């Protein structure tokens, strides 16, 4: 009898454990934030993936402005760590599905938000753009590229540039390359010269950095207008021009070094003189330039230098972090107050020098942006604009996932025809 | 009549408390494990290929269609290679460690603890350390194991970045982590074999190797089977280790990672559910025969 009791208890305990293991994750408390904070102050839950050095400082600077301007509101930082927001986006997905959105969340401006828009998760922000005259403050092409069916769903806080060719001046000199290559042909010739010297011609990181490289090569080979047209309804990804661009890409990839863990070690190979070139977004500048711990502490123009990626001079391939207004936000007024700070000149000038990006607004205080950022600010107001693929401007999340899959398979097979077919299928399934 | 009622009550007293104790767990498991499994299978049989659409029943369409995708073949092949290397590696290494222990070396307890410790670490932590150890840089760029191999003059490897054998390298941290556990299983198995049996074999003129080959190994079959099942099901649903070592890259894609990408990047719930269903089925292939076998064995004894 007693033995049976014991068996019963053990059994129950085991089953209980198993149940916890299997189902414990489901009813987990998702967002106990939001609502009223202490002292009668209203809390505003701001969801982002800004936890790294620089970006977290920038967010803090904006928070201070926000709380100064809105004494009755407190800022609740709901940031989830992880570069490019993979983990944050997964958590956000479950919050949105449970209809418990944060008051405002970070998202790459552009087509990356399409999924949320179609699911009816986001409010149209046209009223805010009208109230703050943002259509005049931002470049017209930016407003056009983030509009969906005439409506705008997010407020861009910063602008990064994706089509930057980083290079090591002394490695180039040693290889007999006079200046940064201006066309794809010059680029391939320069890669060949570096290869002959036994250095890594082009450093690459994990698979997403290869998609990043591909978007720059597509832009450089096709030209800005043909590139932008690829993301319009009915675009022809099967054209001969795309085939040529992908062949260029395959040729360039044949000069790539061993893939590194992520973009940082790949960029470091250039700054440390092991590799000649790296195509990466301008967040690499902060990594090269900042003192150790946060960066490599290298000297710009001597240890590393930059140019628009080959064939893309005069075009700014942009990407942007933006904030949204989810439908059903608990503290909608607080969220709108946050968006106003995020859109303001004061907010953007506080955030961007720390983050290492430039403001989306055209009226930024130029004195705050020096060295690379000075160049970027100048180009931003004069260049043509193209949207980044890898960073969520030009394509929706499922489309990007398909492109990444095709590129990942290409790295293994080196089959250009299969890559193009994959891109054609991805466009057919996802373009609108 | 009264006596009959009394005996029914007495019988109820025997089983009712146990049942009451277990009921909450049974309900919880019914909802959160089997209910969710059922939900997953029914989702996998719809065309809900984005979060917004309702999804109509399409039968086994998704289960068939996924075989047209080159990436699915790749990730299945990866999972098979990983499973074979990991299960064999952990079994052989675990058996070997137990074999050494069983000889009664000095400080056995310490060694046992040392070999068991890796199991206390999560696969994520293991993965992050091994990502550095298995860095693919070579010669002057070598770090981690390649640096060591460079110094002692062994060949250097691309490790998990190798196009063909990357997943075999991915199994190394898993072997490192689980072989101590397998050792513990085998050690218990070894200890369970009566010394008289070995003695008898030796008396019959069996060599020491022969004792292991013909007496110990056959008696260890149940332990080996348990270890095989445990390792096999860990291996088929491996996710955390791969994510920690390489992230969601195609070169190390496995079904569980593909599932994550399908749900959170492709935003295709039906596809994610299809992959999840395949993972459950592949694990079931391992586990169900084992369950049947152990239930039968219990009945026999």
From TrEMBL, chain A:
Gene3D superfamilies: Periplasmic binding protein-like II
Chief site of localization: other
Keyword Disulfide bond among record annotations: no
Domain of life: Bacteria
PROSITE patterns: PROKAR_LIPOPROTEIN
Keywords: Signal, Transport
Signal peptide span: 1-21
Compartments, as annotated in UniProt: Cell envelope
UniProt GO cellular component terms: cell envelope
Family designation: Belongs to the bacterial solute-binding protein 1 family.
Physiological role: Part of a binding-protein-dependent transport system for a sugar.
Protein name: Probable sugar-binding periplasmic protein
From TrEMBL, chain B:
Keywords of this entry: Cell membrane, Membrane, Transmembrane, Transmembrane helix, Transport
Compartments in which it is found: Cell membrane
Gene3D superfamilies in the record: MetI-like
Biological-process GO terms, alphabetical: transmembrane transport
Membrane topology, as annotated: Multi-pass membrane protein
Transmembrane segments: 12-37, 79-101, 113-133, 165-190, 211-234, 275-293
CDD domains assigned to the protein according to its UniProt record, in alphabetical order: TM_PBP2
One Gene Ontology term, aspect cellular component: plasma membrane
Domain ABC transmembrane type-1 as annotated: residue spans: 76-292
Name by which UniProt lists this protein: Glucose/mannose transport system permease protein
Organism annotation: Nonomuraea dietziae
């Amino acid at each position: 009898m007693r033995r049976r009791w014991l068996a019963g208890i053990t059994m129950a305990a085991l089953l209980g454990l198993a149940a916890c293991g299997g189902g414990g994750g489901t009813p987990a408390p998702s967002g106990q934030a939001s609502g009223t904070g202490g002292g009668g102050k209203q809390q505003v839950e701001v969801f982002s993936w800004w936890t790294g050095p620089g970006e977290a400082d920038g967010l803090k600077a904006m928070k201070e402005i926000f709380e100064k301007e809105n004494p009755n509101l407190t800022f609740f930082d709901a940031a989830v760590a992880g570069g490019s927001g993979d983990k944050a986006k997964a958590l956000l997905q479950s919050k949105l599905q449970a209809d418990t959105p944060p008051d405002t969340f970070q998202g790459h401006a552009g087509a990356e938000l399409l999924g949320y828009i179609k699911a009816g998760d986001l409010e149209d922000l046209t009223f805010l753009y009208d109230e703050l005259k943002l259509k005049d403050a931002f470049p017209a092409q930016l407003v056009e590229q983030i509009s969906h069916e005439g409506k705008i769903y997010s407020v861009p806080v910063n602008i990064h540039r994706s089509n930057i060719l980083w290079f090591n001046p002394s490695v180039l000199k040693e290889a007999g390359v006079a200046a940064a290559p201006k066309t794809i042909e010059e680029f391939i010739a320069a890669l060949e010269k570096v290869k002959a010297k036994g250095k890594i011609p082009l450093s690459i990181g994990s698979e997403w950095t290869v998609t990043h490289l591909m978007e720059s090569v597509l832009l450089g080979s096709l030209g800005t207008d043909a590139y932008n047209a690829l993301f319009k309804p009915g675009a022809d990804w099967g054209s001969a021009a795309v085939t040529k661009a992908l062949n260029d890409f395959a040729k360039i990839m044949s000069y790539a070094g061993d893939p590194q863990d992520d973009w940082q070690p790949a960029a470091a190979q250039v700054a440390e003189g092991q590799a000649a070139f790296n195509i990466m977004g301008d967040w690499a500048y902060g990594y090269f330039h900042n003192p150790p711990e946060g960066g490599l502490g290298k000297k710009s123009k001597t240890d590393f230098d930059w140019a628009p990626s080959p064939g893309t001079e005069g075009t700014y391939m942009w990407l942007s972090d933006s904030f949204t207004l989810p439908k059903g936000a608990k503290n909608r007024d607080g969220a709108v107050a946050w968006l106003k700070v995020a859109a303001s000149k004061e907010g953007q000038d506080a955030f961007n020098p720390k983050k290492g990006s430039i403001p989306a607004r055209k009226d930024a205080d130029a004195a705050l942006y020096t060295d690379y950022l000075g160049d970027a600010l100048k180009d931003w107001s004069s260049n043509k604009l193209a949207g980044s693929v890898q960073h969520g401007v030009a394509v929706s999340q499922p489309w990007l996932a398909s492109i990444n899959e095709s590129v990942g398979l290409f790295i293994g097979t080196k089959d250009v025809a299969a890559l193009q077919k994959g891109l054609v299928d991805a466009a057919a399934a996802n373009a609108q | 009549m009264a006596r009959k009622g009394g005996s029914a009550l007495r019988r109820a007293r025997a089983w009712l408390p146990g049942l009451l104790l277990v009921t909450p767990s049974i309900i919880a498991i019914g909802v959160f494990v089997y209910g969710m499994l059922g939900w997953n299978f029914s989702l996998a049989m719809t065309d809900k290929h984005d979060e917004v659409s309702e999804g109509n029943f399409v039968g086994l369409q998704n289960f068939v269609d996924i075989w047209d995708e080159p990436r699915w073949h790749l990730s299945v092949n990866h999972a098979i290679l990983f499973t074979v290397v990991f299960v064999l590696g952990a079994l052989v290494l675990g058996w070997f460690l137990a074999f050494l222990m069983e000889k009664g070396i000095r400080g056995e307890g310490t060694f046992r603890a040392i070999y068991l410790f890796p199991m206390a670490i999560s696969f994520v932590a293991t993965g992050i350390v091994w990502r550095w150890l298995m860095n693919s840089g070579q010669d002057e760029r070598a770090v981690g194991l390649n640096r060591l191999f460079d110094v002692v003059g062994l060949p250097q490897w691309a490790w998990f970045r190798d196009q063909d054998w990357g997943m075999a390298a991915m199994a190394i941290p898993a072997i490192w982590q689980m072989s101590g556990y397998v050792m513990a299983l085998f050690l218990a198995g070894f200890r369970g074999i009566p010394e008289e049996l070995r003695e008898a074999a030796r008396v019959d003129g069996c060599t020491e190797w022969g004792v292991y080959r013909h007496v110990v190994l056959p008696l260890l079959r149940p332990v080996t089977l348990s270890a095989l099942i445990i390792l096999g099901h860990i291996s088929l649903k491996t996710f955390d280790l791969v994510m920690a070592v390489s992230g969601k890259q195609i070169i190390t894609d496995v079904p569980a990672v593909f599932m994550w990408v399908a749900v959170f990047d492709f935003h295709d719930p039906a596809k994610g559910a299809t992959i999840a269903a395949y993972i459950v089925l592949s694990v079931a292939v391992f586990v169900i025969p084992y369950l049947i076998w152990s239930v039968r064995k219990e009945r026999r004894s």
